[in-house]
Amino acid sequence: MTRGAALAVAALIAACAPVSGEAGVAGTDGPALFVANKRGDSLSRIDLSSGTEVRRVESCANPHELASSPDGRHVALACYGGTSLDIFATDSLERIGRIELGSGARPHGIVWHDSGTLYATAEGRNSIFVVADPLGKAGLSEISTGQRGSHMLAVAPDESRAWTMDMGDGTVTLIDLAARRKIKSVAVGEEPEGIALSPDGRALWVSARGSDKAIELDPRTLEVRRETSTGAFPLRLAIRPQGDFGVTSNLEDGSLSVIDLAAGKVVRTIAVSGRAGAESAQQVTILFSDGGERIYVAETGTDTVAEVDFATGNVLRRLNAGKGGDGLAILDR
């Protein structure tokens, strides 16, 4: 079911409190990593040149996923503990807008498409929202998935289709964005959560944390093409910008499983965040750098982000952020 509405984005001018000990706004012009700190209700900017957190501001309650605008001037934050998508300037972390999605929304998965349209799941409403002109009049459309807990999201390059990972029902849902309607939902694996579409749009990969597998689906039919075993509890799945490899973030053993997408199988394991059961093993979101040379791993249990060299698997450094870092966005161009 589709609901169309035109809502104004409220200007929320807020003082951007610096990180303790910060002098001025150094580090706001170069490559940066942004971290949603879900246990600290805050948003961090990390200067990638120095590896230093140069800015941290208060956010909404329990922020989760992040998405950057096509021009790199803004990030949108999914306020999982509330009902809004909040927009911040990447240079100052000034909050410049709030888009309200309605009662019980609990937005989580978020994609800021190259077209400028913003997409987000509303887990509490079993739906996704399409936000046209998010920096302007913010026209909203809501599309029901009909599935409980629509959590993560992928959008086709041509914006013809979207896919959600519905944790409450253990399904993947295919949505026709042009018609603003759900096409179908299919059960996949045990406790599926992570989802990523190949850059060419020809393969949809999901990670099933309950069955320790990565599964390739046909994006148009949702038929399973092949499966491969991963590390323990693969919470997230990301695909390298080149489209050659995928990676799962394995929460229970602190590793990354590297999948050769052409072969459809795991070809190596990268040890990142510690032994199984350790607090340090609690890694969640993973993000590739724009060139695919680095992987950033949110180590939620230790309030750090690991920077991993993809070629060697070496952890190059650990970047300090706020409490419970989860969602990530990058600006490295």
TrEMBL record:
- InterPro entries, per the entry: Haem_d1_sf, Host-pathogen_enzymatic-act, Lactonase_7-beta_prop, WD40/YVTN_repeat-like_dom_sf, YVTN_b-propeller_repeat
The record, for PROSITE patterns, names: PROKAR_LIPOPROTEIN (PS51257)
* Residues spanning the signal sequence: 1-21
Sorted alphabetically, the keyword list is: Signal
Q: Fetch the Gene3D superfamilies from UniProt.
A: YVTN repeat-like/Quinoprotein amine dehydrogenase
Q: Can you name this protein? A: YVTN family beta-propeller protein
This protein's species is Novosphingobium marinum
